[in-house]
Specification:
236 residues; alpha/beta; 11% strand
Length: 236
């Protein structure tokens, strides 16, 4: 007869082995590069769910390690990203890391202040209509230097024209206190307004993206990244 202690030990080892196997399968699935078939099987809602799950891993310190060189080899001839992200150039907000994504998973377009202009519209039309991305996220972040510069009307070479893209959000934002970069609440309000205006601009200025959204083939949402916590909050 099997001793009770031995039985419990065997049962525990079996459970650990099962959990390790489940973890290995999850990692293998996450590390599998995006193909056209995999991309087409993902719905817009599932695309956003993948990004949210990735951010949760990032926050929890449970990011998935993959063989990036192997992924580079497997995606060298083609790509099929499931989402596109419009982000700020800020060094603290790299989309692939924030959403725990890897080579071939997401398109990223970045500029100071994550605003939308014609170049971004064209890039995102390619991402969604041609390459098949299922979701677009306009990602702003807390304590944004570009937003602060737009609020304070900073003038510096070509940066002046860059910040002008954010000024409509400055004018449209409301918050208590002074309307300067020293007012953290106002800076946050402008950053959020800038994201919302960016989301609206994607369908207002691009019939291509508007048609994809109408057909249920694409979702466009806004989100804010908290620099202090790493948490990404999606806007309704």
């Amino acid at each position: 007869m099997l001793h009770r202690r031995a039985f419990c030990t065997c049962a525990s080892l079996a459970l650990v082995s099962s959990l390790m196997s489940d973890r290995a399968r999850a990692v293998d699935a996450a590390c599998a590069v995006m193909t056209r078939d995999r991309q087409h099987a993902i719905t817009p809602d599932e695309a956003l769910a993948r990004l949210k799950a990735g951010n949760e891993r990032f926050i929890d310190g449970k990011t998935i390690n993959c063989d990036l060189i192997q992924q580079a080899k497997e995606t060298a001839k083609s790509q099929a990203p499931f989402a596109a992200i419009v982000g700020c150039m800020d060094s603290r907000v790299p989309p692939e890391l924030v959403f725990d994504q890897r080579i071939g998973d997401v398109f990223c377009t970045r500029v100071a202040g994550n605003f939308i202009n014609t170049d971004f519209l064209g890039s995102l039309e390619y991402a969604a209509k041609v390459a098949g991305a299922r979701a677009i996220v306009v990602l702003g972040h807390s304590d944004c230097g570009a937003v602060k510069g737009a609020i304070d009307h900073v003038k510096l070479g070509n940066l002046t024209a860059t910040l002008a893209h954010i000024e409509p959000a400055v004018k449209a934002s409301k918050a208590g206190g002074e309307r300067t970069s020293k007012n953290a609440a106002f800076v946050q309000a402008v950053a959020e307004t800038n994201v919302k205006m960016g989301v609206a601009a994607l369908t207002a200025k691009s019939p291509v993206l508007k048609d994809l959204v109408k057909a249920g083939q694409l979702r466009i949402v806004g989100a804010m990244h908290d620099l202090a916590t790493g948490c990404v909050s999606f806007m309704a």
